[in-house]
Amino acid sequence: MVKSKVLVVGGTGYIGKRIVKASLAAGHTTYVLQRPEIGLDIDKLQMLLSFKEQGARLVEASFSDHRSLVEAVKEVDVVICTMSGVHFRSHNILLQLKLVEAIKEAGNIKRFLPSEFGMDPALMGDAIEPGRVTFDEKMEVRKAIEEAHIPYTYISANCFAGYFVGNLSQLGTLVPPKDKVCLYGDGNVKVVYMDEDDVATYTIKSIDDPRTMNKTVYLRPPENIMTQRELIAKWEKLKGTQLEKISISEQDFLSSMKEMDYAGQVGVGHFYHIFYEGCLTNFEIAQNAEEASALYPEVRYTRMDEYLKRFLN
């Protein structure tokens, strides 16, 4: 089977750079959108140039220039958008509507993967404010995709290990606590943790797979489904120590939002749905969806005890 040509939009971002790497590794002709808006952001430019050295092709286009976006889209078969949707970095979800318009006009795209890669927004209709804005905007993009009859795959990648594993799922830090750790409730709600490189690998596997056409693909490899307590226990075993555990009630956790800025309130809302409601695991995968590790058993995904070893002294 001929491998699709891929355009990555947001290729210098947290997930985007991994998607570019995985696409190249899988042998796809890979284009990366180069936006003139990067201005003097030397880090982004150098990353783009490094992609070029690895075999990617840079294509210039701007979201403020519809024609340039259309021409960029015409170069490829698949578009993957990885623009940020988190408020503590940048929040650009609705900018994708311009990309949808370009894909619609170009008329050649076999698959579009919009920027999702977290919780499934279709299941978050009852999400609390202000964090629900993320899900509402992603659903607005989905609506535009489906009304334009653009073939799609939605990737629900759950909890990125970089933000949820090294810190044992603590807010406000990215490294393991030294003495005590906060538990959300009893810490026994099932969560799904994913190494970001594995997210990219599974994503690229899905783009030419007819089984994932117009479906949501959940990344829920069985050994990475665990409770916060189980994650902590893995770290304690590796470290050979015990952490003091402090349980935070649901009410106290939600009350903490009052003292936070907007981005913090969004984060607390998302943590609440994950660790108190169990929104990542409290449902069965429906008929119009697939689970990535079942589709691609050949992928040796990273287990979280392996991931945690990088934090050992």
Automatic annotation (TrEMBL):
Keywords: NADP, Oxidoreductase
GO molecular function: pinoresinol reductase activity
PANTHER family in the record: PINORESINOL REDUCTASE 1-RELATED, PINORESINOL REDUCTASE-RELATED
Classification of source organism: Eukaryota, Viridiplantae, Streptophyta, Embryophyta, Tracheophyta
Similarity section: Belongs to the NmrA-type oxidoreductase family. Isoflavone reductase subfamily.
Entry-linked InterPro entries: NAD(P)-bd_dom_sf, NmrA-like, NmrA-type/Isoflavone_red_sf, PCBER-like
CDD domains noted in UniProt: PCBER_SDR_a
Domain of life: Eukaryota
Name of the protein: NmrA-like domain-containing protein
NmrA-like domain span: 3-308
A GO BP entry: lignan biosynthetic process
